[in-house]
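Practice set, problem 2.
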Amino acid sequence: MSDGVVFDSDTLSVVDFDARRWEANPGIPGARMKALASHEDGWIEVLLNWLPPDLGGGPHRHRHRSVRERGLVIEGELPMAEFVAGEAGPGVAVLFRAGFYMDRAPGCLHGLDPSRRSRSGFTILEWRDGPGTYLMEDHAADESIVEDAPREARALEPDPRPGVVIERDDLTLLDVFALPWADSKLEPGVRVQILTPGEVAIAYAPPDTQLEAAGSRRGYVLAGSVALAAGVTAGPGSFVQYRQGEPPLGVAGEVGARILRF
């Protein structure tokens, strides 16, 4: 196996993020990425994206015509501005940081906060259902609509609900480190955080506890390890993808496992 591929078959693929090489992201100047899964048409579907410290931009904002994008911040921070479609005024300032989950629907207006820069750089696991979301990549001219934006962003009003940063029809931002856990209805002993109902969740399994795919074909191990049915152990930073069927995901290792299922 090469470039971080731990296991690959007709039904299952396991990639070790840490062992995969970084490459330039052609859609974002200065950024680097690790591509994990590509669509049959060739565009990248799942990737780890790294942006360098002091990255700036704007003042501009953009939206996507048809593509939905989701992501979980792995480390670092990135100052963003989030806008309400149809409003000309300033957006709200949101510091994306480790543990932030984003679910951005088509039409959601957003951009970098032009008044601030990332001090540490920024790493995010992203997945999307179409190309053209990065402004310098192929198809961006057809998919992404760019417009001028105010130079200043206004303060974000805190949401009283634990873990909720922003929740509206076109955007969900959650802080998973503050989001409550609930018992899984399908897996004894497993606890879950629901990020997008029916589609995206984080599961925690104590040592030697069975984890199911639970309707998902992809997973990213955030902590601990999972002994997969194929006889392969997926450790922290492993990307797991089932290509066919939905077998049991595996058994949590000796320190348990925390895994993003999507």
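Problem 2, part (b): a different protein.
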Amino acid sequence: MLVTPPPPVTLKNSANCRKKNFMASSVVLLPFRAVVAFRAAGQHLNFTRAAADLNVTREAISLQIRALESHLGTKLFHRRHRGIELTEAGYRFYTAVRQGLDIIGAAVDDVQSVQGRSTVSITTTVAFASSALLDRLPAFHDANPGIDIRVIESDECRDLDRDGIDLAIRYGSGNWPNVSMIHLFDEETFPVCSAKMAADNPDLCEMENIPKHRLLHLSGSAHQWEDWQHLLDLAGIRFSGDLGGLWFSNYTNVVQAARDSHGIAIAWKHVIRRHLDSGELVNPTGKVFKTGHGFYLLKSDSRALSAAARKLHDWFLDEFRE
């Protein structure tokens, strides 16, 4: 018996199907690491800051951006003498990428919370993160093993809404827009050095002799008003000589150099406390100076905290508020 084959199947809306397939293919082929690098570069308009965010080199960011531009067949940035700017196409793509990655990040948090895990992000200065937070956060995690904490160390003031960050601990005058803040404590500053250096140089007990020795400096625009000249002004000391010494871009290295007797550092009480308690560092003058600034706990005005973020927020108040 001869069987007649069925007629060919006609797909309706074949143009739409082809369009969807094409869109899916273009997303699959998109270099994801390059997209993440582009998001960071577009956010900061600076390859160096983007590299710091992603813990890679500036050259790696530049290579990823060029690879993405080659893949898309268009320029995403104007390279200017003093920086970079998004092109018109770059701005459109950045807006979509930012929204897309934010949605993906929210979905990851949602899935993890359903599975019994949550992630809370907090940003603070390198100095505070490497001292006070490093000392105390493990206790919170031990008590709340289902909450993962992502610490974003940055001496620049990060935009909590733009960067999708839950909480911040910032040092300053308490004047930041679009956030709710709670004052944790006022800060005091003073010189510190190793106990050995203080013993070998008894003249360090007098504040006016401090700038006669090697000074340790923290470089960067975020620290211009926290320098040795500012501390000497607070102490009422006029020094006409050169405030030279050793310069570092990271406060952890400043502290290590002081511990190794390489010079005298500027200290903040709450940042340096554990080194004072251990006796590794001492205040040779015994004098402390009010900075007029303090540390504050911040959250966004426009977003409600998750249950996990609220728990960490309240724990910070219990631990740090004076």
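Answer key, part (b): Residues 187-291 form a domain with the D-Maltodextrin-Binding Protein; domain 2 fold (CATH 3.40.190.10). The two ends are 94 Å apart (CA to CA).
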